[in-house]
Amino acid sequence: MDIGLSITNSSGFQVSEFILMGFPGIHEWQHWLSLPLALLYLLALGANLFIIITIQHKPMLHVPMYHLLGILAVVDIGLATTIMPKILAIFWFDAKPISLPECFAQIYAIHCFMCMESGIFLCMAVDRYMAICYPLQYPSIVTEAFVIKATLSMVLRNGLLTIPVPVLAAQRHYCSRNEIDHCLCSNLGVTSLACDDITINRLYQLALVWVVVGSDMGLVFASYSLIIRSVLRLNSAKATSKALNTCSSHLILILFFYTAIVVVSVTHLAGRRAPFIPVLLNVLHIVIPPAINPMVYALRTQELRVGFQKLFGLGEHVSRK
C-alpha cells in the first residue's frame, strides 16, 4: 500500500506506518467477534475496578495477600487496555493503520504487562508459601514494606528487560510490506516484515521468555510443590482443607496463565495451516485472564466476598432478612 511507504535517500522505500489487518482468513466477518471481545473487555475493567475499590475501602483486606491482588488487578486493567481499544477500533471504524512509534509502544506495553503479571504471580506464590510453611514468621517477614519492595523490584525488572524488544524492532529496516496479519503489534509479527536480518530480535525474545517467564514459572511451581508437601504432612484433615483452600484460587489462575502461554507458543509455531487460530488465542490470552482473575478470587475467597457484600450493602440486607 502506497500510503504506508515513504521514499528514503538510501534504499528505495521505508515503511511509515503498519496496517493491522485483523484475524487472517476471516476479514469479511471478523467484525462479528467485536461483541464478545468488547464484553470481555468491559468485564475485565468492571470486575478489576470492583476488586481495587473493595480492597481500598475495607480495612480487613489491608493485608499483603490482598495488596498483591489489588496490584494484579491494576496490571490486568493495563494489559487489557493495551490492545482492546485498538482492536475494537479496527472492527468498528476500520482504523487499521498504526504508526511505527505507536506500534513499538504497544509491543513494549504488552511485554511489560505480561512479564509484570508473571512477576506478581511469583510474589503471590511466595506469600502463600510463607503463610503456610512458616506461619509464625509470616507476619514479621511479609509486611506492607515487603509488598512495596517486591512490587518495585518487579516493575524495575520488567520495565528494563523489555526495553530492548521495541528498540531492536525499531532498528530494523521495513522497506516493502507493511500489512500485519494480526489485531495487534506482536514483536515477531512486526519484525517478520523487516527487510534485514532479525536473528537478534528472535534471540532476545527467546531469552526474555526463558529468563523472566521461565524463571518465574519454575519458582512458582517450586513454591507450590513445597506448599503441597507441607500441607500433606498436617495431621488434621480440617487444617489440610483450609490450607489448600487458601491457595487454591492462586493455583487455578497460575496454572491457566502459564498453560495458556505454552499453548499460544505451540500454536504459533504450528499455525501456518490455520493462521487464524494462533492470532485468536494470542488475543484471548491477553484479554481472558484479566476477565476471569477477579471472578475466581471473588468466588473462592470468603474475605473478598464479605468485602463485596459490605461495600454494596448486601450484608446488611441479608442480615435483616
Automatic annotation (TrEMBL):
GO CC annotations, alphabetized: plasma membrane
Source organism per UniProt: Sapajus apella
Alphabetized UniProt keyword annotations: G-protein coupled receptor, Membrane, Olfaction, Receptor, Sensory transduction, Transducer, Transmembrane, Transmembrane helix
Compartmental location: Membrane
Gene Ontology biological process terms, A to Z: cellular response to lipid
Coiled coil: none
Record field: transmembrane: 32-55, 67-93, 105-126, 207-228, 249-270, 276-299
Gene3D superfamilies (alphabetical): Rhodopsin 7-helix transmembrane proteins (1.20.1070.10)
Protein name as catalogued: Olfactory receptor 688-like
UniProt cross-references to InterPro entries, sorted A to Z: GPCR_Rhodpsn (IPR000276), GPCR_Rhodpsn_7TM (IPR017452), Olfact_rcpt (IPR000725), OR51/52/56-like (IPR050402)
GO molecular function annotation: G protein-coupled receptor activity; olfactory receptor activity
Positions of the G-protein coupled receptors family 1 profile domain: 47-297
SUPFAM superfamilies linked: Family A G protein-coupled receptor-like (SSF81321)
Topological category with respect to the lipid bilayer: Multi-pass membrane protein
